[in-house]
Protein: glutathione transferase
Amino acid sequence: MAGGRDELKLLGAWASPFVIRVKLALSFKGLSYENVEEEDLYYNKSELLLKSNPVHKMVPVLLHNGKPVCESLLIVQYIDEAFSADGHSLLPAEPYECAMARFWATYIDDKFFASAFQASRAKTEEEKDEALKQTFMAVETLEEAFKECSKGKPFFGGDSVGYLDIVLGGHIPLVYVGEVRYGIKLFDGTRSPLLEAWMERFAALDTAKAILPEVDSLIEHCKAKRARAAAMDATASN
Structure:
């Protein structure tokens, strides 16, 4: 655990996959922190958030003894390095493997998540189909990445959860939402059997179960956001 002089405060939003991954990192490292929920990231951002992340004005932000660290991938890396004596290391110790883990983490956000998010926001069937095509291509690539990184073991990190498990693990709730709400199964036994087994294995961990939000709650949250956005568009057009 962090020493008494270490104060950790997380500015976040419970449904954000990027906030979820930071919570996962903190929990797998066994660190205590204060969770500060940003209630309205669209119209009423807190003064603390605006002060802590004046460039992007977005969550997550980790405050360590008052000093802000922004961007989820950087926060997870920071947590692992700043608290190297707490729990097992998340990033590989070998420099090349560490570089590869950072590479695949960026791929997860820039390719897998970006295309899946685009599919969820597509305005036409053609746009949706193209975005899903890109998403499934990214899944196939990540299937090979898992095979390479895990070396036949249960997790990207080998026998235990590592950096990439946490990075991709933050997106698990949205993968389940896509399956339940839209009937789209991103990880399946045909296209990506290793990732499907990994996802079930990761989500079953006690630490993950305590952090990952319930699918039904996320679906209701997504519906509320869509309704609010539609109302805003209608107001703006009048």
Notes: The chain has a mean pLDDT of 93. Residues 107 and 138 are 8 Å apart (CA to CA). The first strand starts at residue 8 and ends at 12.
